[in-house]
Amino acid sequence: MVDVGxxxxxxxxxxxxxxxxxxxxxxxxxxxxxxxxxxxVIGPVGLGLVEPSVITETMAELGLAFLLFLLGIKMRFDEIxxxxxxxxxxxxxxxxxxxxxxxxxxxxxPFSFEVAVIIGxxxxxxxxxxxxxxxxxxxxxxxxxxxxxxxxxLAQDIVVVIILAVLAAGRPEGAAxxxxxxxxxxxxxxxxxVVAITASKYVLPPLFRRIADDxxxxxxxxxxxxxxxxxxxxxxxxxxAPFGVDAYLxxxxxxxxxxxxxAQLPYSKDLQGRVNPLTDLFVMVFFVSVALDFEASDLLxxxxxxxxxxxxxxxxxxxxxxxxxxxxQFDLETSFLGSVxxxxxxxxGIVIAVAAAESDxxxxxxxxxxxxxxxxxxxxxxxxxxxxxxxxxxxxxxPYLSRWEQSDPVEPADTEYRxxxxxxxxxxxxxxxxxxxxxxxxxxxxxxxxxxHIEAIEDAGYDVLFGDFRxxxxxxxxxxxxxxxxxSSSDQLEINEILLGETTxxxxxxxxxxxxxxxxxxxxxxxxxVILAPQLGVAQFIQYLESYFEDRxxxxxxxxxxxxxxxxxxxxxxxTDRPGGDDD
Amino acid sequence: MTDVxxxxxxxxxxxxxxxxxxxxxxxxxxxxPSLILAGLLVGQLDVIEEEIMLELARLGIAFLVFTFSVxxxxxxxxxxxxxxxxxxxxxxxxxxxxxxxxxxxxxxxLELEALADVGLDEPLTVEQALFVGIAAxxxxxxxxxxxxxxxxxDIVHDYLSSEIDSFNDLLAVILLLVVSAGAFALDPVATxxxxxxxxxxxxxxxxxxxxxxxxxxxxxSDEAMLISIVALLIGFLATAEFLxxxxxxxxxxxxxxxxxxxxxxxxVFNGLTSIQEFFVAIFFATVGALVTLPLDPFVPVAxxxxxxxxxxxxxKPIVTGALLVYTGYDRRSATLTGLDLDHVGEFSVIVAxxxxxxxxxxxxxxxxxxLAAAVSMILSNxxxxxxxxxxxxxxxxxxxxxxYHDVDDWNSVPDDISDHVVIVGYGRQGRRLVAFCEELDQxxxxxxxxxxxxxxxxTDCDAYVFGxxxxxxxxxxxxxxxxxxxxSTAESKSLTEYFxxxxxxxxxxxxxxxxxxxxxxxxxxxxxxxxxxxxxxxxLADSLEALLNGEYDSDELRTxxxxxxxxxxxxxxRSSADR
Lengths: 584, 579
Known about the structure:
The complex is a heterodimer.
Chain A: H1 8-26, H2 31-42, H3 54-74, H4 77-80, H5 84-108, H6 113-123, H7 128-138, H8 144-168, H9 175-211, H10 215-234, H11 236-240, H12 251-263, H13 268-292, H14 296-299, H15 303-327, H16 332-340, H17 347-358, H18 366-388, H19 390-401, E1 421-424, H20 428-437, E2 444-448, H21 451-459, E3 463-466, H22 472-478, E4 485-488, H23 493-502, E5 508-512, H24 516-524, E6 529-531, H25 533-550, H26 552-568
Parallel strand pairs in A: 1-2, 1-4, 2-3, 4-5, 5-6
Helix pairs in contact in A: 1-2, 2-13, 3-12, 3-13, 5-6, 5-8, 5-15, 6-17, 7-8, 7-18, 8-16, 8-17, 9-12, 10-12, 15-16, 15-18, 16-19, 17-18, 25-26
Chain B: H1 6-27, H2 31-45, H3 50-74, H4 82-111, H5 126-137, H6 142-147, H7 156-179, H8 186-218, H9 222-242, H10 247-257, H11 266-289, H12 298-326, H13 331-340, H14 346-357, H15 363-385, H16 387-396, E1 421-424, H17 428-440, E2 444-448, H18 454-460, E3 464-466, H19 472-477, E4 485-488, H20 493-500, E5 507-511, H21 515-523, E6 528-530, H22 532-548, H23 554-568
Parallel strand pairs in B: 1-2, 1-4, 2-3, 4-5, 5-6
Helix pairs in contact in B: 1-2, 2-11, 2-15, 3-10, 3-11, 4-5, 4-7, 4-12, 5-12, 5-14, 7-13, 7-14, 8-9, 8-10, 9-10, 9-11, 12-13, 12-15, 14-15
C-alpha cells in the first residue's frame, strides 16, 4: 500500500528558512537574504544536510509562477497609464546602459564573451522583492518616486519574462537562430497576451462576477486560471509539435499573463491579498533551493571579481538612474530617492542565471551562476541600508546636487485620499449614513466584498474598493490612516478591532457591534459611537407599535416612507432620491 | 503510470477543478464533493503519482486540523448544552453500531461460496467494519467551519446541527489518535496517547514561553510571522512523524502552540487561510483520484458505498430526529436538524485516508467510503435545499405521528383570549415586545419552540405556547384567527409564509434581513416588514446628523452612547429568534 511520510527535506527547509528568515528580519536584512543563506548553510555548500527533491523543486517552480502571477495581478492599466511615458523613457535606456556596463565589466574580467552576455543580461534589473518590500515598509510605495520605481521594475520584469522565454528555447546557433527564436517567442507571447486580454474583457468579468462573493471559490478558480496558463506554456512544445513548430514559452510568462488578465477586473486587489501568502511560502522554498545546487567552491569561485563588480555596478546604477530621472524633469528629491533605491541586482538576475545554467547545453557553469548569485546577494544587502536611510542621505548630499535642480519639475499627482470618509461594508445602515455624510465631505470611499453592492455604490457615484477589509493592501488603498470619518457597518469584531487599531484619535469612528459586550470593547478601543443595530431596530419598531395601538392612521403615515422603500424591493435604490425619507 | 512532472500533474488537477467548481456553483452544490469529483476525473488520466500527491494532500489535512485546533482554543468554546451533547453521542453510537453491523453482514455474505467470484481478495474483518462505522457515525463540520462560512441563522435546527457537528469534531480527533495507534491493541494505544500528551504538553510550553519570543523577533513583519507559524506546524508534523504517531496529532498540537489570534496578526491568519485552502483543495482532489474506475471488485465496493449512503442519508436523519423529539424539540426542528447531518463527514474522509496510509484499511473499503462521502454530500446539498418540502411531505403522510409534547404545561393561554398580539419567538426582540405589551396592558401570546427558553416562558409570560408555530394545534390554542396582530420575530421562510396566509383576517408583521424579500412579503399582505437594518438606520441617522451639525461634539456623543449601553445590558437569553 501507499507508504507516505512527510518529506523530511521539505520540513527541514521550511523550518530552517523560517528561523533564519526571522533572524534576518530582526537584523534588518531582507528575508530573501535569509532564505538564500539558509540554502547556503544547509545545502552542499555548508553542512550538506539537504538535497533538492521532487517536492522542493516543484514548490520552487510554483514560487516563481506565483511571484509572476502576483506581479501580473498588480498591473492595472489605468493606474499606471499616466506614468507610462517617463517609465519607458527611464527603463529602456537604463537597462541598455547597465546591461552594457555589466557586459563590459565581465569581459574585462576573466569571463568568456558568451558568459559576459548572460552576466550583462542578468544584472540590468533592480530587485522587485527588495524595492517593493522596503517601499512598503517605509510607506513610500505610493509616493511619486515609489510609483516610478515600481513602474520601472515592472518594465524590467517584462524584459525578464521575454529573456526567460528565449533562454528556454535553448542555445541559439547564430544570429538568425536568435532572431527566429525571438520571433516565435514574440508571436507566442503576443498570442497568449491577446488571449489573456480578450478573456479579461469578455470572458472573465461575467465569470468572476458570479463567483467573487464566495472567497474560497473565487480563490480556487483564480488558481485554476493560473494553472491553465502554466499548463499551456509548459506544454506548448508538445501542443505545437504536431504542426512542426518548435516552440517554447516560459511558465513564468504564462503565469504573468494569467495575472494580467485578472488585474483588469475590479476584484483583483482582494485576490492579491489571497495569493500573497502562498507566494511568500513557495518563493521561500525557491530562494532556499537556489543555493542547494551549489558547492562552496562554485559560490565563492569569483568572490573577488564579485566584490569589484558589485561596487562598480551600484555606483553606475545610481548615476544612470539619476541622470535619466533628471532628464525626465523630476525634482531633485524624487530623482535621488528613486535612484538610490534601484542600485541592487535583482533576484530575477539569479532566475535568468539559473535558466541559463539549466539550458541544454548550459550557457554558463555553476561557478558563473555562483558569481551572479553572490553579486545579487551583496548588492541587495547593501542597498537595503541605502533605502532605509535614503532621506538622511539626501539631506547630506543635497547641496552638492543643486546644479541639477529643475526649474519646473514634474509635480506629484496627488491621488491619495486625505481627510475623507471611509465606509466599511455597505448595507441599509451604511447607505443612510452615506446620504448624511456626503453633505459634509467631498471624498467618500466605500469598501465592500460583494459584487452587487460595489456595482450599486459605483452607480451612486462613490469611490469603491472591492475587497476584504482585513487585508492591509485594501486598508492602505482606502487611506484609513488619514480618514477624517470612518463608518463601519460590519458587525465583525475582528474587522472593527483592526480598524480602531489603525485610526488615530482625530478620526471619528462609528462601528457596529453584535452584542453589548462587544460594544463595550469597541468603546474601550476608542470608537466614538457603537451601533447596536438590533437594539436600535427594536427601539424604532416599538415607536411604530406605539402608534399602531394608539392611532392606526398615524402608524400608517409613519411607516409610509419605509413601506415605499420596502415595496421598491431594490437592494440599493438610487442613493440620491429616497422617497420621503426622514433624512431629507 | 505515465511519467509526468509533479507541476504538470498539479496543473492538470487545477485546470479540471476550476470548471467543475463553476458548474457546481451553478447547480448550487458545495465545494467538497466537486473537488472529489474533479479528482476522480483526473485520477482516470493516470497522471497523478499517488505517493507524491498524498504528501501534498496530507499538508491539506495538517492545515485543516491545525486551523481547527487554533479555532477551538482561541475562540471561547460555547458551553455546550447537555441534552445536545447526549443526542450527539447517542446518534454517533447508534449509527456507528449500525455501520459496523452492516459491514460485518456484507463481509460474512461475501465469504459465502456462491459469491466467491465477486468477493474481495482480503476478508472484510471487524477492523475494516469499524471504519465503515466511523464513516456512518460522523458528520463533522471541520471543513464546514473553515471552508464555508455558515450563514448565521437564528433557527433552532441550524444551531442544533452545528452543536452536534462540533461535538463530532472532537470525537473525530480522539478517533484519529486511536487510529494512528496503528492497531486496536491496548498497548500501542496507550503509547500513542502518551506521545499525544507529550506533544500537547510541548505545545503548551511553546505557547507560554517560546511563542512570545517568536512574536518579539518577528514583530512588524507579517511574512516572518507567517513562515514562523508554518514552520512551527511543520516542526510538529515532523516530530509526530518521528514518534510514528499521526500527523493529525502533530497538527492539533501545533494549533495549541500558537498563541491567541491577536488583531495585529489578522493578516497572518488570513494568509494561513489561503495556504490552507490551496492544500485542502489538493487533498480532496487527491482523495478522489485514489478511487480507480471501474470499481474493482464492483459488487462489494458498490454495496458498501450504497449501504453507507442509505445509512447516512436515510437512517441518520431518522435516528437524530427521533432523539431530538425525545429530548423535547418539536418534530419540525428535529427533522430539519436530521436533514442537516445526512452525509458522511469530511473528517471521516481524513480518518479513512489515515487508516489507508497506515495500512489499516483495505483499498476497496476505502473507495467505498470515499464514494459514499461524495454521493452523500451531493444528496445532502439537495435535502438541505428542499428540507421544508421534505418535512411537509413526511409530516403530511402522518409518518411523524402527532406533535409531541413532553411537558404538561405546554401552553398557558386563556380559552377566551381575543384581540390579542401573537408574538412569535422569545428572543431579545420578543422580550422587548412582551414588556411593551405589558406596559400597555395589551393581551398577548408568545409562541416559542426552543426547550431552553421554557423556564423563562413559565416565569415571565402571562400566556405562551411552547411548540412549533406551524402546527395547526398551535394556531388553535393561541387563537390566531381572533388575534389583532401577529409579530413574527423569527427569520424563517416557512414561518413567514405560514403567517402571511392569515394576512386576510389578521394584521401580520414579519421579519427579514433581505430588502428584496421584503417587497415580496408586502405584496403578499404583510402589514409591515421588520428589516432590522432599515429600522436601525432610522434611529442612527439622528445621532449622526446631530454630530455633523455640531449639536454634539464627539466626546459628548461617546459619553452618552456609552451610558445607553449600560442600560442595554439586560441579561441576554437564548431563544429561537436571536442567534
